[in-house]
């Protein structure tokens, strides 16, 4: 695996590959890699000829400075995992390579950035737009692979690609979960062992809420989730909503003819975790 720290070098290598008619897959990450990330590398390897991964903790998408400073960093372990996964190129830059000057780009994601993560993390999606547009413009991958764990983010990236007319296919991949159902996340490593045990309640609540949405409706499911989280002194609910799976419109009534998804953000101690669940 090639490990490059400069976008100019990445561009050169990718151009070389492209000139021999090969396709490029791209997996952007913030590192502290787990099986969720590796499933994206695997998808990229299946669908393209060369796989580029980036590890960059993008400061502009953090609306909370403490979240940024405590974000886990494990570059050595990450490189071993990526090497074993047969990733072809790792781009692991400093902030100054991605942002030679601070980005002034402002995106308009409309309704999509006014709800859920957009509402609860002001500026977050603009920062995501800044870094992903820089990475896409530099690397110009044929396909880019994202996890549906960040359901709203995938929709934001699709909107970004449409707005900028980028020739990149955005591929959404399934959520990887731990044995107890907790969605894998780099932030899980920041939980104490007690918090980690309690966090396994999240997928259980999502599963139970799924059944309540179908049997008793969305309000009943919300009440249930609220109540169950209030019982937990170490947990605090940021939001729980049921949305139209295509538009992300927040629903008050469930229509079984339309695909719907429930989305949650919850603090476990000081760590904020997100998850989502297709209603079936
Ligand atoms: P991050 O490093 O958290 O920015 O995530 C990088 C990419 O990995 C994003 O596209 C995430 O949606 C994806 N990802 C994170 N966790 C998971 C998971 N548990 N399953 C699948 N993809 C994931």
Summarize the entry for a quick read.
This protein is α/β, with parallel strands linked by helices and about 280 residues long. Helices cover about 40% and strands about 20% of the residues.
By DSSP, the count of extended strands is 9
Secondary-structure element string = EHEHEHHEHHHEHEHHHEEE
Major pleated sheet: 6 strands, parallel
**How many H/I helical runs?**
11
Distance between the termini: 41 Å
Q: Which of globular, elongated, flat, extended, rod-shaped describes the shape?
A: globular
Bin the strand percentage.
Answer: 15-25%
As a percent range, the share of helical residues equals 40-55%
Q: Strand order of the main beta sheet, please?
A: 1-4-3-2-5-6
Unreliable stretches, pLDDT < 50, 5 or more residues? none
Radius of gyration: 19 Å
Could you tell me which ligands this complex binds, including any ions or cofactors? Answer: adenosine monophosphate
Averaged pLDDT: 98
Please explain how this structure is put together:
The structure is a single chain. The chain has eleven helices and nine strands. Helix content is 41%, strand content 20%. Strands 1-4-3-2-5-6 form a six-stranded parallel sheet, sandwiched between helices. Strands 7-8-9 form a three-stranded antiparallel sheet. With 280 residues, the chain is an alpha/beta fold.
What key attributes describe this structure?
single chain, 280 residues, alpha/beta, six-stranded parallel sheet, 11 helices, 9 strands, binds adenosine monophosphate
Secondary structure layout:
Elements: E1 2-4, H1 7-19, E2 24-29, H2 35-47, E3 50-55, H3 65-69, H4 75-84, E4 89-91, H5 95-98, H6 116-120, H7 124-139, E5 143-147, H8 151-163, E6 169-173, H9 193-199, H10 201-216, H11 218-230, E7 235-244, E8 260-268, E9 271-278
Parallel strand pairs: 1-4, 2-3, 2-5, 3-4, 5-6
Antiparallel strand pairs: 7-8, 8-9
Adenosine monophosphate binds next to helix 2 and strand 5.
């Amino acid at each position: 695996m090639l490990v490059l720290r400069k976008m100019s070098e990445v561009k050169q290598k990718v151009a070389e590959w492209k000139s021999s008619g090969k396709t490029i897959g791209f997996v952007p990450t913030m590192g502290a890699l787990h099986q969720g990330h590796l499933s994206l590398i695997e998808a990229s390897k299946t669908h393209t000829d060369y796989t580029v991964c980036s590890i960059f903790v993008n400061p502009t998408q953090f609306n909370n400075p403490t979240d940024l400073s405590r974000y886990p960093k494990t570059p050595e372990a990450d490189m071993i995992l990526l090497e074993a996964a047969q990733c072809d190129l790792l781009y692991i830059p400093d902030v100054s390579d991605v942002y030679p000057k601070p980005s002034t780009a402002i995106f308009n994601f409309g309704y999509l950035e006014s709800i859920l993560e957009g509402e609860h993390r002001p500026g977050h999606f603009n920062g995501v737009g800044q870094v992903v547009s820089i990475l896409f413009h530099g690397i110009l991958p044929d396909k880019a692979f994202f996890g549906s764990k960040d359901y709203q983010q995938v929709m934001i990236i699709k909107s970004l690609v449409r707005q900028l007319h980028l020739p990149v296919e955005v591929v959404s991949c399934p959520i990887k979960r731990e044995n107890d159902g907790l969605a894998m996340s780099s932030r899980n490593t920041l939980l104490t062992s007690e918090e980690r045990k309690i966090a396994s309640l999240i997928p259980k609540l999502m599963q139970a809420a799924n059944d309540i949405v179908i049997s008793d409706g969305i309000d009943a499911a919300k009440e249930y989730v609220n109540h169950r989280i209030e019982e937990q002194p170490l947990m605090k609910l940021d939001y729980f909503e049921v949305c139209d799976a295509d538009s992300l419109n927040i629903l008050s009534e469930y229509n079984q003819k339309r695909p719907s998804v429930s989305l949650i953000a919850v603090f476990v101690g000081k760590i904020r975790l997100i998850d989502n669940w297709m209603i079936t």
